[in-house]
Prior knowledge:
eight-stranded mixed β-sheet, Aminopeptidase
Amino acid sequence: MAQPGWFPERLEGDRVVLRRHVPGNLRAFERWYADPEVARLTRYQDGPMRRDEIERFFAARVVGRDSLALAIHERRNDRLIGTTAFSQLDGENGSAMYHITIGEKDAWGKGYGTEATQLMLRHAFGTLGLHRIALAVFEFNERAIRSYRSCGFVVEGRAREAIWRDGRWWDEVTMSILDSEWQPRSAAAGRAEHAEPGVRGTVERTPQEAAAP
Ligand SMILES: CC(C)(COP(=O)(O)OP(=O)(O)OC[C@H]1O[C@@H](n2cnc3c(N)ncnc32)[C@H](O)[C@@H]1OP(=O)(O)O)[C@@H](O)C(=O)NCCC(=O)NCCS
């Protein structure tokens, strides 16, 4: 369960801005998750989500506190293009699962997803003080795997032949990144850029602080 203080006001990069979802974003979710191509890359079940499933998902995991979810907006025109989230936030062990969906397909392959993931990792490790972020991705989702690798995620395991899709079995790949791996990458990126885009916003209590007696 995400504590209110863990949500940043906004996370700002060169190309995308992440900020809290608003109820009106449900319309975009209905379009994104009804798309067979988006569903193929993101769902364990075959086929798109039903409207009632999307509404439940949006209420619990997007505007609710089950996850720390943020909307992805293109910076140049503020268009809503996707969503990103940490779920299974575990303050005691400093870990969370990471998720991202850019639902506007014309925004794929432009570096937005990689930048959004970098901003989320900076929030997780740099601000919340988490220790480990993990994710699961289907073996055939090469664009996502490349993006995650370039953010520093490494493959830590495979659930063999866990997914039946397009007439064959595929592995589900588990990837993760630790704070000890993120810190030197972040420092090197900071040195290279001289000025990193800042994470603007306030966080009242980190998961560790919240979990502390
Ligand atoms: C996965 C996703 C977040 C990636 O974000 P993106 O903005 O599209 O991707 P980026 O442009 O940041 O980078 C993708 C990387 O894959 C490469 N790539 C782009 N299109 C590709 C394709 N069709 N096949 C394989 N690799 C591709 C890019 O060159 C880049 O790699 P590089 O940095 O080594 O050059 C986004 O495509 C998305 O949300 N897709 C639909 C939902 C989804 O798959 N979510 C993830 C579920 S685990």
